Amino acid sequence: MGHRDLGQPRLVVVSNRIADPRKTAAGGLAVALADVLNSTGGLWFGWSGKIDDEAPQGEGKVHVTQAGSVKLATVDLCRADHDSYYLGYANGVLWPVFHYRLDLADFDAGYIAGYRRVNQLFAKKLMPLLRPDDIIWVHDYHLIPLAAELRALGCTQRIGFFLHIPLPPPLILAAIPGHDWLIRALFAYDLVGFQSQADLSHFAGYVTAEAHAQQVEEHRWRAFGRTLEANAFPIGLDVEEFTTLTHAPEGRDMYERMRSEYSRRKLLVGVDRLDYSKGLPQRMRAFRHLLDKYPEARNSATLVQIASPSREDVEAYNDILKEMESLCGSINGNFGELDWMPVRYLHRTVARARLPGLYRASRVGLVTPLRDGMNLVAKEFVVAQNPEDPGVLVLSRFAGAAEQMREALLVNPYDTEGTAAAIQLALSMPLEERRERHEHLMKTIRRQDVHWWCQSFLAALEKAQAEVKGTPWLRL
Ligand SMILES: O=P(O)(O)OC[C@H]1O[C@H](O[C@H]2O[C@H](CO)[C@@H](O)[C@H](O)[C@H]2O)[C@H](O)[C@@H](O)[C@@H]1O
Ligand SMILES: O=c1ccn([C@@H]2O[C@H](COP(=O)(O)OP(=O)(O)O)[C@@H](O)[C@H]2O)c(=O)[nH]1
């Protein structure tokens, strides 16, 4: 995909997390959007990552810089806004509920006001930067009401929304106090995209049952006086970029080092943010079961688990760190030998440039979330493999990626024995079967890459009927 031509609408991307698109970032959303904007150019607007203790509530300084063909505009947040919007509502309410974890949600009534204030702030700061023919693409659960706030300020441009995380079944969604407000806000967009068909069907179920929406065409629903298009657009990788990274000096160096360190053993690898949705304790228990039940794995399989620190100020994340340390410690204590430690656990972020070498040196990739919007690590692991001697992906059926990646070994991460058996199968899989599975997975990953994702979403948005002028505006 080349830069958007003169005369074509400019792409404006809005997301909470932004990154310099010329550098690598951790977190699937920032990685994917940097890849997209690097090839299209445009404006990327979001939170600066800074907290300004001087700023009053609902206010923040805007910083504008140029990064190659991308203009970056970022806003600071004051502590109270950051805490109620990002830690509170986005990551204390929406994240757990959208990942089916009502038990972890903190329905503090104060959070929603901060969430709304920051969405209003984003709308206010973005408006003056917009051109009449811009096409605006808003990302993720932090910014669901942004289009409605922009519309309230007179924005008539096309606006699309993509949800990177799962959308739960209607009755789980309906547990959020004010859920109707959130879904009503979605109808201010012209197009809403989801990661999977499962998410799309939950959306259809919710709007039909709770908002009495009418389905007017295959992918169009009418409610609150507006018609909205919704569809599934599974996010992909920049396969070329990741392949280049694999063969770059840093990738090769990492590969060589891992191979020589583990020349006598088979490596298993896990790379995740330390998040309860990623199923890390369940993975450790499955690995422990493997060592217990399949003695041939002892002294011959080593699991390298990277757990990148994440959202440490959100209460629901407190326990997982201790649980992981205790599980890894007890596995090493019980099964380790003087010359072999079963688990190498790193509680830190590893630079993305080093990951392909680690993936390529591993016989098994473990991607076993309890729920995940997509999971780009699953795709990265496959792309980094040597096609002549590829490793095997063990993938949770509850990751969005499982809808596309049927040739992985699909597991139920809650089933310790079943997951251990799949790991054992992966460790002993014959070369021919590994090659066949890898070839099929690569075909899908190449066909539905990040450029396909971006082009198909934007093509649908450009076609979506502009119903903005003269629409009686739904006030939130
Ligand atoms: O920004 P953070 O709070 O540090 O969190 C990092 C990102 O996590 C989530 O990523 C999701 O998007 C990925 C790409 O589509 C997808 O593969 C993954 O399954 C999702 O969990 C979150 O949705 C992003 O907003 C965060 O930036
Ligand atoms: O220590 C780490 C951990 C993760 N990542 C990257 O962060 C992204 C994680 O995206 P994913 O979709 O798997 O999950 P998310 O963290 O966005 O929920 C992937 O590109 C990883 O390569 C990284 O660079 N270093």
From TrEMBL:
It is an enzyme of class 2 (transferase). Its EC number is 2.4.1.15. Keywords: Glycosyltransferase, Transferase. The keyword Isomerase does not apply. The keyword Glycosyltransferase applies. It comes from the Bacteria. This is Trehalose-6-phosphate synthase. It comes from Ramlibacter albus.
